Amino acid sequence: MKTNLYLIRHGEAVVNVKPIVGGMRGDTGLTEHGVQQAERLRDRLRDTQEIKADILIASTLPRARQTAEIIAPALGLSLTFDEEVQEMRVGEADGMSNKDAWEKYGTPRLDRDPFRVIAPGGESWSSFVLRVANALSRLTREHQGKTIVVVCHGGVIDSSFIYFFGMNSLMPPVAGFYTHNTSITQWQQYTDSYDGGTRWRLIKYNDIFHLHEVGVSESLDWRSIAPHTARSGDRASVPLLTEERDEE
């Protein structure tokens, strides 16, 4: 039986547009636009029933928690919270403006110094990726053979590529990721018919088909399109900043 892991990024958050360093103190949840994005995802999941989830897990940061609370009724599941799928921990910079935090603690340059913490009490790039890798390993072992949905963050989704593809975790990848708010990323574990080994494959990344209707006057009837396969252009990966507001 295959294990399916769905990683869903939270909706647009207040900390994405202020900008504020968003740990547990600075994160005040979703913007109005972010709530609308999460509601569109909820409607899609409710009407298409495309994800037959066994467990729903969310980061404890408010922006992810609020997103998960909005979509939970569509999956018919109660929420389980997990601190280990939080975004990179920012320590004493939490709640400060980006400008003030970088003036006090230095502008983060993860590509140049991946072992330097964001601020005292926070994480470095390398320690963050290790935490996420441990969390993904634990969750997929604990729920092997099931369908797992995790509402989390752009950095967690970035790190899933590093973990599942066995990339260098000590340095940020040369290629950048730009994960949309409320996008769906799906990983699937399978048994290789050639050597019998267990492997992971990427099924989809940055699926935001539900956001195509945001801003229009009439809502899509998801039931009318559920049986049809989307065109490749409908599920494109677009280069957007992981923790910045999606482009209009």
Key attributes of the depicted protein:
248 residues, alpha/beta, six-stranded mixed β-sheet, 7 helices, globular, disordered C terminus
Summarize the structure.
This protein has helices at 14-17, 32-48, 62-75, 98-105, 125-142, 154-164, 222-225; strands at 3-9, 55-58, 79-81, 147-152, 184-191, 198-207. By secondary structure, it is an alpha/beta fold.
Explained architecture:
By secondary structure, this protein is α/β, with parallel strands linked by helices. The protein has one domain (3-235): 3-Layer(aba) Sandwich (Rossmann fold), CATH 3.40.50. The chain has 7 helices and 6 strands, in the order βααβαβααβαββα. It has a 6-stranded mixed beta sheet with strand order 3-2-4-1-5-6. β5 (184-191) and β6 form a beta hairpin. α2 runs parallel beside α3 and α5 packs across α6 (154-164). The chain starts with a strand and ends in a 23-residue tail after the last helix.
> What is the N-to-C succession of helices and strands?
EHHEHEHHEHEEH
* Helix content range: 25-40%
Please summarize the sheet with the most strands: 6 strands, mixed
Please report the distance between the alpha carbons of the first and last residues: 40 Å
Summing up helix and strand content along with how strands pair, one would put the structural category as: alpha/beta
Q: What count of structural domains? A: 1
Our count of helices gives 7
- Tell how many strands the DSSP assignment holds: 6
Say which CATH homologous superfamily is assigned.
Phosphoglycerate mutase-like
**Overall morphology:** globular
In round numbers, the mean pLDDT is 87
What value does the Rg take, in angstroms?
18 Å
Uncertain segments? 228-248
Can you name the CATH architecture? Answer: 3-Layer(aba) Sandwich
Q: Briefly, what CATH class?
A: Alpha Beta
Output the strand order for the largest sheet. Answer: 3-2-4-1-5-6
The CATH topology comes to: Rossmann fold
What share of residues are in beta strands? Answer: 15-25%
